[in-house]
From TrEMBL:
The keyword ATP-binding does not apply. Residues 17-158 form the Recombinase domain. PANTHER family: DNA-INVERTASE FROM LAMBDOID PROPHAGE (PTHR30461), SERINE RECOMBINASE PINE-RELATED (PTHR30461:SF2). Gene3D superfamilies: Putative Large Serine Recombinase, Chain B, Domain 2 (3.90.1750.20). This is Recombinase domain-containing protein. Keywords: DNA recombination, DNA-binding. The keyword DNA-binding applies. GO terms for molecular function: DNA binding; DNA strand exchange activity. It comes from Streptomyces lacrimifluminis.
Amino acid sequence: MVPRGPRRAIRGTHGRVVGYRKAPHPSGSGWCLTPDPESTTVVRTIVEEVHAGLSLIAIARKLNETGALVPRDRHAQLQGRPLGGRRHGRDFERFRWTSGTLSKVLRSPSLMGHRVHQRQTVQTVHDATGAPVLIGPPLLTESAFHLLQAVLLARSNGTRRKRWTANALLTGVAHCAGCKGRMYFALRKGYPYGDYGCRATARGDVCPAPSSVRSDWLEEYVLSHYHQTAPAEAEVTREALLRDGVRVTVAKGRKGGDAKRMTGPDTSRLAFTMQAPPAVRPEN
Ligand SMILES: [Zn+2]
């Protein structure tokens, strides 16, 4: 009887492990994972650039410029399937690197050759000494991996990143004039208001003129225009604005500006439109 070792074949991983590709198992039966030189080079470059102090956004931009494939596209290419596809309601010829993609890649224990399920090392796959059974030669040693995690963590704690949220009055209403994309809200620390800003970089896009505007100014502007045509409601909700097809487009402001800018928005940057005049709703 042929002994069946636990690593005889890997069948369940779909081969999508960053830095590796599926290859026929040397035993002649099933598949195993073997380093994929192309993505290995990409991963090594990314790690070097993190240590050189580049931000994930800067690294993503460089990768998009050089045309390096994201793991999902590289996997599709190796499988002979078309690149890109549909995502967030848009069609992509190929997917773009974002800081989110990079963060996922850089935090995956698969870089150490660990088998990973839902971003965690699979704890049951250990050999007699308790060490994880490797899916293939590691791209990073354990200590290099842990050093990388420490660098990433220190950076995310050190930078006071804005927390953008999709849960604001004008989400889906406010759009950036530069890229036509949605603007998102972030609170300013220590202020009673925040900003709506273009989030093209988070989508992996480059916006030619990313706009940003104080949230209280934009909300006031939109509500005053809305009230000119819509019957007054006790409290205007986001749902009401979306239902009535309200849209505001914000163009990038000039740098600097004069004292007037401290009292309100430069309304020449703003364009308010409403698709359908709202139906008059009965009182109560
Ligand atoms: Zn934009």
